[in-house]
Amino acid sequence: MSNSNTSSEDPYMLGRNYYASARLAMLHLLIHAQFGFLLHPSIKLPSAIKDQEQLRIADVGTGTGIWIGELTRELPQAHIDGYDISDEQYPPQEWYGPNVSLSKLDIFKPLPKELEGKYDVVHLRFFMTIASDDNVQVVVNNLKGMLKPGGCLQWVERDWMSKFPEKAEKSDDPHTQVTCYHRSLFPEVRWINSLPAQFEQCGLEVLDYVTQAPLPVYRKPWNEDCLIGWAAIGDVIKNQEDKKWYRERLAEAAENARKGWYVDWELVVCVGRKDG
Ligand SMILES: C[S@@+](CC[C@H](N)C(=O)[O-])C[C@H]1O[C@@H](n2cnc3c(N)ncnc32)[C@H](O)[C@@H]1O
What we know:
Elements: H1 18-35, E1 56-60, H2 66-74, E2 79-84, E3 100-104, E4 119-125, H3 136-146, E5 147-159, H4 174-185, H5 195-201, E6 205-212, H6 219-236, H7 240-257, E7 266-273
Parallel strand pairs: 1-2, 1-4, 2-3, 4-5
Antiparallel strand pairs: 5-7, 6-7
Bound molecules: S-adenosylmethionine.
């Protein structure tokens, strides 16, 4: 499995080829099946916008745009704009209809003036390998900046590190060992289970914070999706010794999965509202 399509312009390590897109699509479908919503029920869309025509929604770090595609089926008249630092995974824009736009944006950079206060809802999902404890506030602030007064931010993550030790022992299970290795490749992500505090620090009122483990019926595909993600990470490890070690742990984890083990990361949804 090669990640040769990964752009060298940005540090995103999980690849953007068809394996990576399929992995994200499966994850999206599993999450949607589990939660049963694309927009959390605490988000009350402005009632004045009966025909949805003035409703503006943004998805930042949209990737393949699959969340947007599904949202067009619920809100066909709404204007939905997708943004990502890379357009490599975008579908042809016309497949999503005339009310959708897909363009490039680096959410760590100062927000372009034309995006300020533009949206009723801003959605972001899966910055767990991208934002660090040091810079997550930049992202929350920029997302808040995109909201109209009274608009809502929905942020969805998987908590992939917080319950693991800082350092693993050789005797630890492969998941613990791999997670501790990930700490050396990816930013610190203590922010994931402090998203409500991150929102409040930026002046957003927290409407809800949900954490859920994958339901038993979804554990198998969820686990396979996670292991495909690990394989993609294994592909980009440069040090050959580390790469070999990592692939061995992955093989052990896959073997454990046959005996009922699964990646029990919690899904996290945080919803906040801007004053107004
Ligand atoms: C794990 S993927 C998630 C994609 C999508 N949100 C989903 O849930 O399927 C993370 C996405 O964030 C994008 N990304 C990385 N750095 C970014 C940045 N600085 N600004 C905007 N998007 C970024 C990546 O290109 C990638 O598409």
